[in-house]
Design goal:
The protein is an alpha+beta fold and 315 residues long. The chain has a single domain, classed as Ribonuclease Z/Hydroxyacylglutathione hydrolase-like (Metallo-beta-lactamase, Chain A, 4-Layer Sandwich), CATH 3.60.15.10. It has nine helices and 20 strands. Strands 2-1-3-4-5-6-9-12-13 form a nine-stranded mixed beta sheet. Strands 14-15-16-17-18-19-20 form a seven-stranded mixed beta sheet. The protein has a two-stranded antiparallel sheet with strand order 7-8. The radius of gyration is 19 Å and the shape is globular. The structure holds zinc ion. Residues 146, 148-149, 247, 292-293 line the site of zinc ion (ZN).
Amino acid sequence: MKRRKFIINTGIISSGIKFGSMFKVNLPSNPDIHQFEVGQFKCTILRDLMFSYKASDYFINAEESQLEKYVNRYNFNPEKIESPFIALLIETPTKKVLIDTGSGYSENPITFRGKTIPLKGKLLRLLNQIGINKESITDVIITHFHPDHIGGIFSDKELNYPNAKFHVHENEWNYWTSSKSDNENPLFKVFVEKNIQPLSNYNLSLIKGDEFDIESGITSIISEGHTPGQVALNLSSEGDSLLYTSDAFLHPIHIEELNWRTNYDNDHELARKTREKLLSIAHTNNSMINSFHFDFPGLGFAKKKNNKWKWTIKE
Ligand SMILES: [Zn+2]
C-alpha cells in the first residue's frame, strides 16, 4: 500500500501522535486544525467545539466492572467524557467538499423551553483561517440530522455555503421531515426545522441506496441505527483510503464492545450491524478511520486480534 503523507500542525505533534511520514506546512499552529492527505485529496479536520457526555448515556448496558477496566485504560471521567464536534474538508482536484457543518454560529442564541442555548461553533472561523472562503465550497455532505452535524448549515436565515450542493440520504430526509420523527428529542426537531427543512429551496441532492458515488473517489455507505439514514463516507484516491464513520461509534470502546448500546442510537440492533459492517469495510480496504466524537482529530485504525476489534492511533 502506498505510504500516506501527513501534514500535521504542531499542536498535534506535541500531543505525541505520529502517523506515517510527516511534513509541516506554513499553517498557524492551531490545535483545532489537522491536515493530511489521502492520495490526491487534501483533507482538513476542523474542531468546531468541545462537548461532554456521560458514560451512563454512552454505555447504557455496560456492566460496571467491565466499564471500570475501560475507564482506567482510556482515562476518562464517567461523568464527563470530553468529545469534539468536527467537520472534514476534502479538497479534490476539482471540488471542495465539506462533511458535516458543526453546531453553528449565531449572535442570537436559540431559546428552547425557557433555556438559552448559545451557538458558538468555530467552524466558519477555522475555514477562514485556512484560506477557504465559504462561497468556494462546492458540496456539503450531511451524514445525519443531529444538531452537532447540521447546526452550521444556516446562520440565522442565511445559508452558509450558498454555492454548494447539499447531499443527504433520502431515508434521513424522509424520516426527519415526516411524522415518523414525532417522538424525537424536541430540541433536535428545532434544529431540523431551522437547518434542514429550508434546504428544499436550495440545491439539494438525495443520496439513495446502500453505496452511492457522490463525487469521484467519495462514496457514501448507509450506516443506519444511530439514525435511520446516517451515512459513512469512503474516500479513495491513488490506493489510499479513509473511512469517515460519523457517529456509528461514539467512543473507541464501541469498536471493542460492539454490543454496548448508547442512548443516542435510534435502533440498537441496526447500530450494531452497522458497526460490524464498517469495521469490515475498513479492514478490507486497509483504511484509516476518522470518527467524529473520538479524541481530536479522531484518526486511527481498527485492528482485529483474537476475534476482537481494537482501536489504535498508530498504523
Ligand atoms: Zn454527533
